[in-house]
Design goal:
Elements lengths: L4 H9 L14 E7 L2 E6 L2 E8 L2 E4 L5 H15 L3 E5 L5 H4 L10 E5 L2 H8 L8 E3 L2 E6 L2 E7 L9 E5 L4 E4 L22 H10 L5 E4 L5 E2 H23 L4 H7 L11 H17 L19
Parallel strand pairs: 4-5, 5-6, 6-7, 11-12
Antiparallel strand pairs: 1-2, 2-3, 3-4, 8-9, 9-10, 10-11, 12-13
Helix pairs in contact: 5-6, 6-8, 7-8
């Protein structure tokens, strides 16, 4: 039996504080999550792998150097190789390096992955198997359930559910008590569709939340993150309707409930900037002031 959720969260808090930038000296580590499920780290990026009697099911390789390190670790620690490699989405900082496992692995991704990979020039192994909405991978009597996350962080993001371990791996569209990346880059995020993806993740049956960045969380952290996004939207919308400029709202909006979250001091004003943009712009230039606060109500 693996460690408890409370122990996982406590242990994760001792890991390197996320700054979303590379450290001077690379940090790599492997931590057991539950049973045969492990989380591996390269600096501020995290992925997971599941060990089975017939080989390993792994997730994002992160980059070629990390993939080569992981390949050696799997051989030394478990005498196993990667049989399935599942991409969470096509962005380079998570998907690159898959070619390192091409001698043993079958590659799995959402059907939109290949187009994004080609468009952005990501160097990795292309998927051998793709799916639209749901897919199940079984190896050595162990199972991973894949679900399309919808338009959240990208148009090909997926959720990986490990039912036996009661854990999910979800990348870049959810965090545990940490703010989303800087100014919510327009190329990376869809809004308010993002809220729908979070609500769908909330409906899943799991205990352990394994984000692609920062600390390990629990099922409750998904709702907490969604509430942050909704509260941020509401505060920015109200400030806009009151006629405040972006600079004024960055000084006046605080959301004290979230002040103890990771990266609040560094990124909260940037989050306001990003939400302001999301509420006023689309890539086609049309207005997007159409969503009521808490449109997606708690069930």
């Amino acid at each position: 039996m693996g460690i408890s959720v409370k122990m996982l969260v406590a242990a994760a808090m001792l890991l390197v504080q996320v700054e979303f930038s590379l450290a001077e000296d690379d940090v790599r580590d492997i931590v057991q999550i539950e049973g045969d499920l492990y989380r591996f780290q390269h600096n501020a990026h995290f992925s997971v792998f599941l060990v089975t009697p017939d080989g390993v099911i792994s997730t994002d390789p992160i980059n070629a150097e990390t993939a080569r390190w992981l390949k050696a670790e799997l051989a030394e620690r478990f005498s196993q190789s990667v049989k399935y490699l599942i991409y969470s989405h096509h962005h380079e900082d998570h998907a690159s390096g898959g070619e390192v496992f091409a001698d043993t692995a079958t590659f799995v991704a959402h059907r939109n992955f290949r187009a994004g990979m080609i468009k952005e020039g990501v160097v990795t192994a292309p998927p051998d198997i793709t799916f639209d909405n749901e897919m199940t991978i079984t190896l050595g009597g162990k199972t991973v359930e894949l679900t399309y996350a919808g338009l959240s962080h990208s148009n090909d993001s997926i959720i990986m559910h490990f039912p036996e371990q009661r854990a999910v791996y979800a990348v870049d569209f959810v965090l545990a008590k940490a703010l989303p990346f800087q100014d919510l880059p327009l190329w990376a995020y869809f809004y308010p569709e993002w809220l729908v993806s979070l609500q769908e993740l909330e409906k899943m049956d799991f205990d352990i939340l394994l984000p692609g960045h920062d600390q390990i969380g629990t099922h409750k952290d998904v709702r907490g993150f969604r509430h942050y996004m909704e509260d941020l939207e509401s505060a920015v919308r109200e400030a806009m309707e009151a006629g405040q400029t972006l600079e004024q709202m960055q000084k006046s909006i605080r959301l004290e409930e979230y002040e103890n979250w990771a990266l609040y001091d560094a990124w909260f004003e940037l989050n306001i900037k990003g939400m302001h943009r999301q509420l006023t712009e689309r890539t086609d230039g049309t207005a997007k002031l159409t969503v009521n606060r808490r449109q997606f109500q708690d069930e």
